[in-house]
Amino acid sequence: MCIRDRDTPFGRLSSYHRSSITEHLPELAEQLVLFVTDEELRDRARENLEPHIGAEYRLHFDRETSCTTILEGSDNGRD
Predict the structure, then answer these.
(1) Do the beta carbons of residue 18 and residue 11 sit within 8 Å?
(2) What is the mean pLDDT of the chain?
(3) Cα–Cα distances in Å, from 14 out to 5, 11, 21, 46, 50?
(4) Residue 4 CA to chain centroid, in angstroms?
(5) % pLDDT > 70, the chain
(6) How far apart are CA 69 and CA 71, in angstroms?
(7) Rounded to an integer, what distance in angstroms lies between the CA atom of residue 27 and that of residue 56?
């Protein structure tokens, strides 16, 4: 099994290109780890990947403690 990971892979792409890439992204590897912002993965791009998402996590930064916590689920109403 080949696991691929990408950090902010869609950051500088137009929504058209983002949608086109996410349409074919699941074909690249059995498992893919994406580190994306909420702005990178939305609308059609998110819809393209939705059936392939096995787990989601979000990072929550606490300004008082300067610590980041990993939370299960997403912020888009799915959890």
Answers:
(1) no
(2) 85
(3) 21, 9, 11, 14, 19
(4) 13
(5) 86
(6) 6
(7) 19
